Amino acid sequence: MTATIHKIRTYLSWLVAVYFVFPLLWASYIIAAWGLCSLIIAVISYKGLKKRDVFMTGFYALPFLLLVLSIFTHPGDGSSIIEKSLSFIVFPVCIFMSQYKPDKKETEKLLIVFIIGTIVLCIKGILFFVIVTSEYQYEPQHDFIFRYRHEFNTNTWIPPTYASIYLIFSIFSILLFPWKNKRARSILWMTLIFLGGNLMLLSAKMPILAFIFILVFLFVRKELTIPGLNKRWTLILFGIGLVGMISLLGFTRWNELITAFNYQSADPTENSVGIRGGINHCSFELAEKYYLWGTGPQNLQKELNWCYYQFEGNDFDRHEFNTHNQYFDYLLSSGLLGLAVLVLVMAGPLIWGFRHRDPLLISFALLMILCMLTENLLSRQAGIIFYCFFNAILLNRKRTDPL
């Protein structure tokens, strides 16, 4: 019976890894079933539980405990925020307490399923863009990239920034696979090209810049190599790729980049760079007032909206923008304690990755740390499930058989 439950949990883990291809309700049922199996295994195997498992569970559940504390010490209803943040406690409990330690083979299968799910998401976005006619009225200045990003977000329900993070994690996973033969090598190359092309179509600025930084970082440390290519061709290919990505990013988002930090230029053209200037202005303004204890997670958006009233006649009248910076979000919600907890929890996987020379965990941790500078990744299910699940999996997989 135990073996059967373990097998069911393995199959459900594959579905959890690609939760983003399912409707949110279906994904919730899948995660609930996976969690139930994990809890049953945890009860059955509790005698083998180690102090490390308990410590890791408590450590990575700290953000959830912090949010609950902040909500109950500030006025207002925060039940929806607690519900959204359950992943912070569900995944650590179900992975660490159930002693789910996938070996190399299990981890590779899980990553392959995730890569396939990412490909399906990209194909879905392309098909909807080509086939479905949107009712959205585009302005003349809206170029091809803007239209594709808008249609992708509308039809897949996954924002381009989050989809780009999935793509980048898939690319790093592929680069770490063993290239056994020419046939497998050609399939991997085609997959990399497809994923890279979609990454440029989505043209999310911070994920691409983070991707470039991590590539350079791992390449310099000799943590990332391309089997089958000598050093000369690897360096040439690496250089061409970097120049190409930077050039395409500049070409596709130039109109936004030239208005950076000028928040008063934000208008109905939805210039994301310009709008973030106003968001940063309000974030700094609130930080001066609430840096010690925070506003409470349930009150932060109201405070931001009040601040946005000073920017009239633009997108701030039509949207409720969050801080677009996870560190500011925790600082303004829970004060300095919240920021300290977030930094501590995010630094843990990075330190663990360096300690065990695990380039996949290092790339995952750096990707999340950097992208949180411009996005509240832990405020949406699209980000919090991805982070909590893969963070726990990569931390807890067997180290005697490294990937």
Describe this structure in words.
By secondary structure, the chain is mainly alpha-helical. The chain has a domain at 106-258. Helices cover 70% and strands 0% of the residues. The protein is built from 18 helices and no strands. The protein has helices at 2-17, 24-44, 51-60, 62-72, 79-84, 87-97, 104-131, 144-156, 160-175, 182-202, 205-220, 231-252, 254-257, 272-290, 300-308, 326-355, 359-371, 381-396. α3 (51-60) packs antiparallel against α6 (87-97). The radius of gyration is 22 Å and the shape is globular. The two termini are 30 Å apart. The model is unreliable at 259-269 (pLDDT under 50).
Largest sheet, strands/sense/barrel: none
Uncertain spans: 259-269
Secondary-structure class: mainly alpha
What series of H and E elements makes up the topology?
HHHHHHHHHHHHHHHHHH
What percent of residues are in strands? under 5%
Query: Which geometry do the CA atoms define?
Result: globular
Q: On the 0-100 scale, what is the average pLDDT?
A: 84
Oligomerization status of the protein chains: single chain
> In angstroms, what is the radius of gyration?
22 Å
**Helix amount:** 55-70%
Count of distinct strands: 0
How far is the first residue's CA from the last residue's CA? 30 Å
Number of helices: 18
